[in-house]
Amino acid sequence: MDxxxxxxxxxxxxxxxxxxxxxxRAVENGIKYMGFSDHIxxxxxxxxxxxxxxxxxxxxxxxxxxxxxxxxxxxxxxxxVGFEAEYYAEYxxxxxxxxxxxxGEYLIxxxxxxxxxxxxxxxxxxxxxxxxxxxxxxDVVISAMKTGAFTYVAHPDIFxxxxxxxxxAKQMRRLCAASRELDVPLEINFLGIRDNRAYPHxxxxxxxxKEKSPxxxxxxxHDPHNAYDGSSLDVAKKMVKKYGLNYIGxxxxxxxxxxxxx
Length: 262
Ligand SMILES: [Zn+2]
Ligand SMILES: [Zn+2]
Fold this sequence. Notes:
Number of strands: 8
CATH superfamily: Metal-dependent hydrolases
Bound molecules: zinc ion
Radius of gyration: 17 Å
Number of domains: 1
Number of helices: 8
Strand order of the largest sheet: 1-2-3-4-5
């Protein structure tokens, strides 16, 4: 594995270490293509900002800082900078425009909530046995994929469904089929593996295998050490084999400034 496009920084208040330490760790372990994807800023209509995302005031600095490091290390590694973003239909156009104006080059989808948290959404990681909530999550992920703006879907299996297995399979088949049809890869998330989270959720990947969805890997580094995560890589490779996943390797980056209006 010589790529990783899922990297956070201290700016969103829950990662540690210097940007450069992430790069050094990646270079030392043979990563040739690296993307920083810190959480995209959001300003809610009441003027409040998200606390776990990059503050608006430093978003342009974030992109500039990473690009400077990219320049410094360009003989060793190819570095791009972008954001991990939720898709909230009502904010999306503005967010996309902002992301480009900050200097962001690409987006990955991380649907940590199905709708904006200022409207009382609960996190996708909170256990839920409601098929309606699961369906809302799947609907919003599919809408996001349809925008054509997202390079891939991070932790597509983040929704923590505790209800009926058949209902889960029915909804997730829709998500996985859309991924295949729209050619938007699904990420096996290594933070989930190393933290023993509820994702990767194996029944999801069984479905993804049957649906032949394109699959890629992401370290989701929140500290320099995990800018390369070899032990989770072994686990993910076994999943690919076990479920016959359509592993595509390095995803094709969608550069957001090149997106056609429409
Ligand atoms: Zn995430
Ligand atoms: Zn992340």
